[in-house]
Structure formats: structure tokens, C-alpha cells
Amino acid sequence: MERVSAVVILDAQGVVKGWSEGARRLTGRTAEEVVGRPARDLLAEEPLPEALAALTGTAVLRHRDGSPVPLTLRAHAVLGEDGAAGDFMVTGEPPGPAEPTLGERAFQQASMSMSVFDTRQRYLRLNDVACQVMGVPEDVLIGRDFPETVEEARHSRGFHWHLRQVAETGRPVRYESFTGAPALNREHAWSIEMWPVRDASGDVVGTALAAFDSSDQYWARERLALLNEAAAAIGTTLDVVRTAEELIGIVVPRFADFASVDLFDWVLDAEEPPALSGTDIALRRVAHGSGTEGTPEAAIHLGEVDLYPPFSPPARAILEGRVIQSQAGEPAFMRWIAERDARGPAGRRHRVGAHSMMAVPLRARGTTLGVAVAVRIRQSDDYGPDDAVFAEELASRAAVCVDNARRFARERTTALALQHNLLPRGLSGQAAVEVAHRYRPSGSQAGIGGDWFDVIPLSGSRVALVVGDVVGHGIPSSATMGRLCTAVRTLADVDLPPDELLTHLDDLVTHLAGDDTEVAELGATCLYSVYDPVTRRLSLAAAGHPPPAVVLPDGTAQVLGMNAGPPLGVGGLPFEAMEVELPEGALVALYTDGLIEDRDRDIDHATAELCRALTAPAESLDALCDGVLKAVLPEDPSDDVALLLARTRALGADRIATWDVAPDPEHVATSRQAATDQLTEWGLDEAAFVTELVVSELVTNAIRYGAPPIQLRLIRDRTLICEVSDGSSTSPHLRRAHAYDEGGRGLLLVAQLTQRWGSRQTDSGKTIWAEQPLPPV
């Protein structure tokens, strides 16, 4: 029904002077019938005496048809030119609530919470959404102070402070708040705007506010922030378990009250994944965490394996390859909780209140690595679709990091196995030196490097000590290291001097680099040295490698001053050899640059530490190796380290016999007899027969095909060594004699009777040598 308002003009005596259309419609009387008559004549009931003096009240008029017309009247004085009250304007409308205007309807039906306060922060108006947020109708709040209607909390005090500021300063305020509300079961994010309400004169008479629930946007920003944080926090190391722990650190407690990561065993062992089946799935717990210290909610201890039946959310997530969500009240959720309680009864009370869980498969590059589980216990919200999308994205990032760690571990294992097979496992005992060695791979994310070392027995009781470093890391570096290690052994067998050997090795690397770009990109360094226990001289040459350190028996330690030369593969540049005489018992330390070079260390300081560590007392060379690494290396070295220690020995004069041989065939018998007599003196009569044949053949060949001077030398070492030197550089070779040939069988006979034989070039010619085993003592 249309709501009508009336306006009447009365003079000071109560006579009607004006009559509006609204008054005609309410009373049925026209202006001609009413104007000039006393207003009292229009009343159906006599008003109360106190009502006559009031400017507002209720009166009952009589309709033209005789029916009563109750009206709510309000009188307003009309001032004259002199400012004195003359006439009165009276407005009237039927009693009861007025029909809201369009603006009032818009205020009441707004989708955001809107409220109006007076300057003392008392409620004047609230719209429907504000009443829903507060959880009470409007009439309960009207007239009450704001602090009386909310809990005492930091966000409430902040809200009240902003209300006062607007009322006192008259300036609008806009801010965001993350808080709960009396009628909401979760915390919400609010975008709040407050502004002053002014009267016609511009004075602040109240404060209005509008609060927009921006929780969806807030949680979206929070999830995006978590993803950004995860990108920086997950995968900081190439360690599978550490990566899983970093994932737990991201989601607990902001996204979950409890979370766990379970992986297949093959992920931890860097093996290939087996095929999945519908039977129970075995997973190993690698990480978990919760808001409660000690993670009592966990039914599985770290490192333990659990069998997940096909109905369980983790197994379903793995088998179906998607996020599985479950809430309290659902049969699957209750069954899962019951199974957890049975598996870990001690944590039952900590699982009370669990109401939502999510199982997310950890998939990377098409392979499922395990599953992550998130559970909400204290957080009131259940997981929703947006949470599932977020969890899937987060799990995908974490899974890639886990897979990278797995692949790194697999490559590291392969490289270590390759190096283990290429590096010398047990260095055979040498009379020339006592050796000990250590190889320590780095934990760098770049992978295993190409550091290597070797101890190679040479003729004449000499020994080659080698150490090298292929620049770079990973399997390509290890493979290149294997090539170089094999090449050095092959070249050492030719018995080349150190500088010549490095020249041949440099040519080989240059040739390989032309066929293999990886070798060119890697590069390599090498130090090759030969120690002769007879002369006690160490000859060596380096190709871009750090020089060795030497400790004399008196405890003096120094790094040999030598030209490092160019790295292998540069080509065209010479290598410079040097020679130094060492007393018996001297210690020679060969090492790769990882021992003394690091971006955070001064190389001179590290070299001084190495020399000090080499002079420290130790029970054995093995113990000294450990002591050197402990003293010189940082806790977490960034590069591989190879260390080779060799303590020199010397062969005394009583173990060496030398004779000059005249270039006359008649002296062959003399040489043979001298060798036999020497064996008798050494107590080696059992070796006399073979030695006579070897001496006879080698001396005969030297006289017949060589050039003076000719020398015969016997060395009693771990084997019996016979050497014949001459001034010719022509190397002998085996040949097969025909049936009627008178010669050509000598060297073949020597090769068959001795353990090994060969020749080496010397500065003045060549030396042919043969070794035969000695009978056990």
C-alpha cells in the first residue's frame, strides 16, 4: 500500500492556513473545506494536555467519511523576517515503519558489511551482512559501544582505534585486517574503509564503514607467496631427505597442522623404478613435521617402512596419480584415522580433532617418487579445491627437486664406481717407496671430479708417482680421467723421462679434444715423477699441476720450486723436467689443487698449513694422510681431493753389483762367472742357472749389436734384476727364428725364463733388463 505524507500550515492560534494534497488524500477533505477553520475541529479524539505543548506526537483525525485517521505529527516553527516564530508547519504520516527508500534498500542489501557509528563509537545502523558477521540482529547492537560487542583482542583494539581517529580527525581511513568475527568459524581477511559523516554545516556527526571480505584474494596471495618461498627454500641441496624436510618446513604450520613425505626405497637408492601394482604399497618415511614439538601425530617413525593398503588415501594418490581429499565424517577418512590410531596408538590423543586431509602424489618427469600427506587438526577450514590445486603445484616443484637429487645421487654413485675401478685399489709394495693415499670426493652439487693418482713400478726398482686432475665434474670428467690414467700407465711402460711422457700425453689430449668436445671443455693437469732408490734421485715434470711438498728426515718441509708448465691439451709448449736428490726416509707429498685451493681460502696459507701438517708426528703414513686432510681441508670442501704420500727408501751398496764389460765376446764367460759368484754371496744359488743364461744372452747382444761402454748390473730387490747397458740407442725386439737359423732365439729364451723384461732409453744409450722372482725367504 502506498505510504502518503501530509503537510499543514497553522498560525499561532491553531487555525489552518495551508492544506497539502497529501492531507486531502489522508482525510478526504479539500483545502476549501479546511482552510480558515481551527485545527481542533479536525480531531476525532481530544489530545492529551502534554501533547499540545510537544512538537512531536500522535493524533487521531476524523476522515470526511467519519472514520478515524491516526497520524504521527511533527511540528516545525516557521520564522518571520524578525526571527520570531509565527506560523507552524506540521507534517503527518501514518504510524508504523516507513517504506524504505531506494538508498536505504541499497544500504541494507549491500554485499559487504556496512555500519554507522556516532562520534562516540556507538552503533546507529547496520546492514544485513554486518548483522550476519556479528551474529545478532540490528536492534541488539543499536546504541551499544563497539568494544562491548567484540572480544578483547589486538585486531579489535586496532579497529576501535581507527574509528576514533576518523571521528576525531575527520579524515577517511583504508586498511586491511586479518581477523575472525563472532559469527564466523574461521579467520577472514577484510579490506576496510572508514569515512566521516558530516551534517549540513560540515561538522562530523558520525562514522560510516564498509568492510569487504577479501579472504579469497588473501588466501590466493598467501598460496602464491608460499609457492615463491618454496621455489627458494626447496632444493637448496642435492640431498633427497633434506629436500623432503624443506617441503615439510614450507607447509607446516601455515598450510597443514601435520605433514609427511614418504618415498619409494628405489628413490633413496638411486635405482630404476619398479612397476606399480594394486597390492599394498611400501613407502619409507623420510620427513614429517607438525605444530606440536616432537610430531606426536606421526604413526610412522622416520626411516621406517609402512605398507599402505590400496584403499588408503596415500596409495590411491599414487595409483590414480591425482590429489585425494577426505574430510571428517566420510567413511574413507574415518577408516584412515582408525588405521593410523592402530598403527601408532601413542599419538591417538594428538589426532583428535583431525577433520581434513590431503594426499598428493610426488611426480616428476612422468615418474611417481612417493606421496606427501597434509592434515588439518587445529585449523578450522577443510581443504578445498583451491587448496588441492596449490598442493599439486607445490608437490610438483618439490618432486622435481627430489628427482634432481635422486639423479645426482645416481650419477655420483656411477662416477664413484667408475673412479673406484680406475684408481689403484691396493698399491703393491715397493722397495723404492712406502706409500699411502687418500681420495675424498666433494659434496658439491656439480658432482664427482676427475682427480686421480697412481703408483707405477718401473724397471730397475724405480717407481713412478703420478697425480692428475681433470677439470670439471660428473661422469664425463671421470671417463676422461680413466683415459688419461690408462695413457700414463702405457707411456710409463715405455720408460720415458717425465718431460717426454707429458709431451706425449699432451699430444694425446690434443688429439682427443679434436674428436671429443667434452675433453676440450674439461682440460686436465698432471704431475709425473720417477724415484730411483739406487741413486736416490727424484725426477719430475708438471703440466699445470701444483708442485709436490717434500719433508726431509730432519723435519724440514718445503714445496719444490718447479715450473708448473702448461695444462694438458694446450699443445706446442715444452715441459720442463727437474731432478732432486733425496735422503732415505724423505717424505714426498703429491696432491691435487682441491687440497689447497678454494674460493674462501688463501692458497699461501693453505700451503703453509699443508707443510705443517706433513711434519706432525703420526704412527703411520695412513694416519698421516688422515691428519693432513683434517688439518688442511675445510669442513665441506668444494672440490675433490687426491693425496699421495711416499716415503723414500734406498738400496744399499750390498744389494747392487756392477761390472764394466769389455766389448769382446771372450768376456761373456767372465761376466757370467761374476754374476754367479755374486749370487752365491747373496745366498741365491737357486737362481744361478737362469741368471747365467740371461747374463750370457744380454751381454752377447750388447757386444754384438751395441756399442761401448757396456755395463752389467745386478740388483737384489723384491725380485732379482739383471741390467745390461750399452751406448747404442737401437732397441732390441723379439723375432721368431726358423728351424735352420743359427741365432735369433736369445731374447725369446730370456722372455720365457724371466718374469718380465724390457728396455729403456738412457742419456748415453739404452738398458736391457730382465726380472726373475726370488725364492721365498
Distance from first to last alpha carbon: 131 Å
Rg estimate, integer Å = 51 Å
What's the mean pLDDT score?
84
Biggest sheet strand line-up? 13-12-11-16-15-14
Q: Structural class per helix/strand content?
A: alpha+beta
Q: How much helicity do the residues have?
A: 25-40%
Largest sheet: 6 strands, antiparallel
Q: Label the overall shape.
A: rod-shaped
Strand tally is 31
Tally of DSSP helical segments: 22
Name the poorly predicted regions: 737-744
Strand portion, in percent?
Answer: 25-35%
Structure write-up:
- Strand 30 (756-762) and strand 31 (765-773) form a beta hairpin.
- The chain has 777 residues and is α+β, with helices and mostly antiparallel strands.
- Helix 8 (215-233) runs parallel beside helix 14 (385-422) and helix 21 packs antiparallel against helix 22 (746-753).
- 33% of the residues lie in helices and 29% in strands.
- It has 22 helices and 31 strands.
Features:
777 residues; alpha+beta
Gist of the model:
It is built from 22 helices and 31 strands. The protein is α+β, with helices and mostly antiparallel strands and 777 residues long.
